[in-house]
Amino acid sequence: MSAVLLDGKALAAKKRDELKSEVTKLKERGITPGLAVILVGNDPASTVYVRSKQKACEQIGIYSVLKELPASTSEEELLTEIDRLNNDPTIHGILVQLPLPEQISEQAVIERISPAKDVDGFHPISVGRMMIGEDTFLPCTPFGVLVMLQEANVEIAGKHVVVVGRSNIVGKPVGQLMLNEHATVTYCHSRTKYLTEITKQADILIVAVGRARFIDASHVKEGAVVIDVGINRVDGKLCGDVDFESVREVASHLTPVPGGVGPMTITMLLANTIQAAKE
Ligand code: NDP
Fold it and tell me: What residues does the Tetrahydrofolate dehydrogenase/cyclohydrolase NAD(P)-binding domain cover (predicted)?
């Protein structure tokens, strides 16, 4: 058996077309969705991510502003900038690119963004609302995973979803979204014992560990759906947390890296920004 590949690039392109027409409709009503991105310092990976977010905004007609601050910026200066954007009526979404320099508390920054403009879905109010199943901004990567599963008609209700990884931005919220969809959810992390025995029980296995090819065919039940969130660079090439070649022989569905979850993440950021503008 060779797994059906879940093509995130094609799905993202389709979704962005739909979002583009939503932006056109909003503009006809005199509303241009606006996203502000704050980049502190010049971390190369962050710079690449920020540029691709801006480019994606331009492509669908979202107004985007990039605020670049030096690595020496104090927490107070960054919070003041966020206050300014919270009060700017042309800006509907605010994103602070992480990680931040060590003199700045990430949590303080996340909590300063107005929940109404929290398009990353990291504010404790957004997280809490997601947890109790209220409408809110969903964090972009977990939201992208959910949309990919839904678009591929993968049934989630009643299935056993195993999430490997428990970070606040991927692992925890993706498991919560699966629970909201009525899955039975198990989380694994660095202190999990008998990892293989647990991952082998998964109908849907979601991997967000940050280690190249960490999950191989021996961890996967025949016919499972495998979602690889990882992005690792090995010898200059991108690869996921899943050993693609071996797992594609046992899984029923598999996301490639690159071209899987990655393109969906930015797409959901665009969707959240449009949602913020509508509200
Ligand atoms: P973190 O480093 O924050 O979290 C990694 C998680 O993996 C932790 O919960 C950790 O456990 C767990 N882990 C580490 N080692 C093991 C192990 N040996 N066995 C089981 N679990 C383990 O990473 P992120 O969640 O931020 O990101 C994960 C991956 O996803 C990265 O490759 C990142 O680049 C990628 N990513 C991709 C995105 C996309 O758009 N596609 C967006 C965001 C991230 P513990 O909590 O115990 O330490």
Answer: 139-278
One-letter amino acid at 43 equals D
Q: Is 20 a catalytic residue?
A: no
111: part of which helix (H) or strand (E)? helix 106-112
Write down the pTM of the prediction: 0.97
From the CB of 192, is ligand 1 less than 6 Å away?
Answer: yes
Residues 151 and 252 in one domain: yes
Rounded CA separation 5/36 (Å): 34
pLDDT in tens, 233-274: 999 999 999 999 999 999 999 999 999 999 999 999 999 999
| CATH number of the CATH domain containing 152 | 3.40.50.720
Q: Is the CB of 190 under 6 A from ligand 1?
A: yes
113 marked as part of a ligand binding site: no
Q: Which domain holds residue 55?
A: 30-115
CA atoms within 13 A on the CB side of 222: 1
150 included as an active-site residue: no
Q: Would you say 231 is a known binding-site residue?
A: yes
**CB 202, CB 224: distance < 8 Å:** yes
Question: How many folded domains does the chain comprise?
Answer: 2
